[in-house]
Every structure is written in structure tokens, then in C-alpha cells.
Amino acid sequence: MVEPASHALRHLPAVATVLATTGAAALVERHGRVATTEAIRQVIDEARHALRAIPAVAPGADELAVRAGDLLAAKAPGMRPLFNLTGTVLHTNLGRAVLADAAVDAAANAMRHPVALEYDLDSGSRGERDDHVRGLLRELTGAEDATVVNNNAAAVLLCLNTFALRREAIVSRGELIEIGGAFRMPDIMLRAGADMVEVGTTNRTHAADYRNALSERTGLVLKVHTSNYRIQGFVAEVGARELAGIADAAGVPLLNDLGSGSLVDLSRYGLMKEPTVREAVAEGARLVTFSGDKLLGGPQAGFIVGDRALIAEINRNPLKRALRVDKIRLAAIEATLALYRDPDRLAERLPTLRYLSRPHADIDAQARRLLPAVAKIVGTAFAVDVGDCQSQIGSGALPLDTLASAALRLRPHGSQELLDPLAAALRALSHPVIGRVSEGALLMDLRCLDEADEATFLAALGELDTTALLAARP
Ligand SMILES: *Cc1c(COP(=O)(O)O)cnc(C)c1O
């Protein structure tokens, strides 16, 4: 039935009428009265414009409440949880490490309650915030002392600024790395106030190169773990142990920036070996820096471990105050580090390690178990099967080592042009699913899908409107 525009407009429900529906009541419960009323006003406005343009039956109050709900859902917080099925375990753009339950609980407690952040419970006097992690870091790395800052970039910046301000820092040309997000070693040196002295060549640097560059202006010798690339072929580098000897002889500290670093030997969990912090300390570097949210599997943080006197000097640098971490992260760091005291149960408790060490057979079995349910949801528009794929560690760790994994592969029945709209529709779900497009299929690598989250995953996929996808086909 087509009504004259004026008639239909008169039938358009008022804001109060829509607000009185059960649908709107649920929205008020979830989003609050102010946001819900605003959304209802907006959908009524839109309906009014539409009716003026094309005469039709006015939408009812319930329908308008549904539209308001869609509008509010579209405004859902951007930081809502999502499924990382990209196959990259430590995905920097997706927040790197997923924290252990113990770390989440500790962080929540630190948010909800006062905590002894800089307070010594024994004496009732002022304490130091680093004290919460100092003992654990010493125990886990063998270093004399330790401190923690915002991230590893800050750790490197702080070391450079403390020991090489208006002095020289020596680094091999083969180690002048760029990490994503504009962290470039030469730029950091400049901003830290250090004069960079490059030695050697891209592929070969020798002990004599460092020795010749040392002078009374040298404040620091740097060794940077080439975490996200490999130089192969005719290559030579000076190992940390030898370099520590050279630096010590000149009375200059060696800083070994491990980047990811690891507190345990990963080969124990069937992974490739990444240098451990304990080894780097034992090799003689006076300072070692590493990240909290890479292989370590904790929150974003940067650790500096090393000689007591040097750490004390770092702590006196006013920049330390600008780069320190807050109580929430400190609580999560402490809880994460504590898990490392029990390596036997680490893989079970630390999600990063759990994901990295999942065997292919386990992921493949999960994919086959979920296949029928997923096929039922998307089967009309897409062919679904299980296929082998390769996962990556991510965040620049072990860049050449991939992990055998399994994925649910969604392939359009018709044109390939449906792939990008499918990926977009998956991103738009209330619990977004992020896969990757490869060889004409959308891959959902299940390495990072916990069994406990399978039901949520299927429910999220259930929101997918494949009919709309097909209809919108170009
Ligand atoms: C990742 C990395 C950094 C930066 O660490 P963030 O914790 O991301 O700030 C610095 N140096 C190396 C060698 C790295 O791999």
C-alpha cells in the first residue's frame, strides 16, 4: 500500500513511542538512555527523509528500535575483542601478546583497588615501583639489577641518553635496523643526543672495526639483534662475548638490544631458538634490553637488565620518569614474569607460548570439527574446506621461521570479487573476525582460536548475512 507522503509522515512514531518498545528498553540497558534516544531521533529523521523522497508505509516503532540498535552497534568501541585468525601470533596491529589470566586478574585488581605501588608494606615507608619486578628479573636473567619502562624503544632510548648524550655510540652497519612504526636506530640515536659512529659494512663487521672506533668520546657500544631480517652469504659479525671484552677493555658499557628476547629456551617447546636474556647477560653485555609484549607474552613494556651501577645511573636520568609504566601494567608484568618460575606449566598458562607451540595436528582437528558448522553458515555463497597453511610468530621475531598450521578456507562459488566484501563483512561483525586473503580464498588460521572461544566464534559468524553479500555483488 502506498500512502501519500503527508499521511505516512503523520504515522511515523514519536521518539517516546519508540523508546517505550521492549527493543528500545534493551538498548537503554546496554547503551544508556542518552545514546539510545539520540539514535532513535536519528533513525526517525532518516525515515522522514526517506518518506519525503519515496512515498511508502511508515516504519513502526519496533522496526525503528531495530534500526536504532543497528546504528548503536555500528558505533561499538573500536577496541572491542576480535578473533585474530591472521596466522600472525604476535600481530603488532592487533595488540601483540594476549595476556595470561593471571596478568589480566592482576591488572584488574590494580585498577579496582589501591596497591602498594611505591610503598614498602614491611616498613610502612616509601618504596620503589621497580621493586615489584626487580627480584623476578634478576632471578630469571641472572643480571644484577633491572628496570622497566614503556617499551623496548624507550629502553634503548633511555640507555643511549644516559650513557651517550653528547658522546659517541658505536654500532655495526649491519645492525642499523628499522622496526615498524618509525623506530630506526639512527633516528633514535639522534633523538637520544648520541653521535652515531657506524663501523664495518652491511655484510661484514670485524673486531678491529670496533677497536679502531673506540675513543675517549665513546659512551656506549651497541649490539642490536637483527630480529626482523637476516643477512646471509659472505657475512661476519662480532659475537656479543667478544664485543663485551672489547668494550670492557676500553671501559665502555656494551648494550645488547635483543628486541624480542626470550626468558626461556624456546626449543624446549619445539620452536626455533631465539637468544635468551640469560645468555645475553652471561655473554658479558653490561646492559641488555628486550620487549614485554613480544615473545615474553606480557603487556607492552621494555626491560633493561644489567650491572647495578649502570641501572642506578639510568634510574637517575630524568627521562626515566617520563618513560615509566603505570600500576596496571606493572601488575600485569609482575604476574607474567611470575609464570616463568614454573616453565613446565608455562605453555599452558601463557597464551603466546600456547599458540606458538600448538601442533599442526591439533589445529587441523579443530578446523575439521568446526567445518560443518561454518559450512552451514556460509555454505550458500562460499565453498568451505580445511587446508594447510603457515603461521608466523610476528613482531619481527624469527622472521624466516613459519609454523605449520591449518585454516578454514572460504572460497566464493562465483566470482573472486566476493572475497574483499567477505573480509569486510567479517571485520564488521560485533565480534570481528580477522583472516587473510591468500590464493583466491579467505583463510581463517585457527592457531590462535582457543577451544573455549569456539562457541563465541560460531555465534559471531552466525551474524554474517551472506544473502546481502551475494546481493551486493558487483
Ligand atoms: C621490537 C624491537 C625494538 C622495539 O621494541 P618495542 O617493544 O616494540 O618498542 C627494538 N629493538 C629491536 C631489536 C626490536 O626487535
From TrEMBL:
One of its GO terms (molecular function) is L-seryl-tRNA(Sec) selenium transferase activity. It catalyses: L-seryl-tRNA(Sec) + selenophosphate + H(+) = L-selenocysteinyl-tRNA(Sec) + phosphate. Pathway: Aminoacyl-tRNA biosynthesis; selenocysteinyl-tRNA(Sec) biosynthesis; selenocysteinyl-tRNA(Sec) from L-seryl-tRNA(Sec) (bacterial route): step 1/1. Its EC number is 2.9.1.1. Converts seryl-tRNA(Sec) to selenocysteinyl-tRNA(Sec) required for selenoprotein biosynthesis. This is L-seryl-tRNA(Sec) selenium transferase. It comes from Luteibacter rhizovicinus DSM 16549. Keywords: Cytoplasm, Protein biosynthesis, Pyridoxal phosphate, Selenium, Transferase. InterPro entries: PyrdxlP-dep_Trfase, PyrdxlP-dep_Trfase_major, SelA-like, SelA_trans, SelA_trans_N_dom. Its main location: cytoplasm. It comes from the Bacteria.
